[in-house]
Design a protein that fits this description.
It is a single chain. The chain has a 3-stranded antiparallel sheet with strand order 1-3-2. The chain has 117 residues and is mainly α. The longest helix is centred in the C-terminal third of the chain and has 15 residues. The chain has one domain: Arc Repressor Mutant, subunit A, CATH 1.10.10. The mean pLDDT is 93. The protein has 6 helices and 3 strands, in the order αααβααββα.
Length: 117
């Protein structure tokens, strides 16, 4: 065993297992978190999020920039809205989308930093 490594046991006591279990989130939180991260599993949604980091855009401009049709973009925006990753505002008949909050930008940055290591 090299310096700095500690020996790991494969035999937790029942009380140790119970203590670790108590630190785990409740099942509903686990499910919600899994659903949240699933949204990041689609390249088109990631492209949309990257674009929205730059500001607020309408569906037409998002579709033109990402080079996809507006129907496909609208479908992806619906998923992003349901996951509370993006928000929208209406200005007349136009709908403009932006990131819901700064945490979304942070999550993307952390993911990129992790991949760069």
């Amino acid at each position: 065993m090299s310096d700095g490594q500690k020996m790991v046991s494969c035999n937790l006591s029942e009380s140790e297992s119970d203590a670790l279990r108590k630190k785990m989130p409740v099942e509903e939180e686990v499910q919600d978190l899994a659903e949240f991260f699933k949204v990041f599993g689609d390249p088109t949604r990631i492209r949309i999020l990257f674009l929205l980091k730059e500001g607020e855009f309408c569906v037409h401009d998002i579709a033109a920039t990402i080079e996809m049709n507006q129907t496909a973009i609208s479908h992806q925006l619906k998923s992003l809205r349901q996951a509370r990753l993006v928000k929208y505002r209406k200005d007349g008949k136009q709908v403009f989308y932006s990131l819901n909050d700064e945490h979304i930008d942070d999550i993307i940055a952390i993911g990129l930093n992790h991949l760069a290591e």
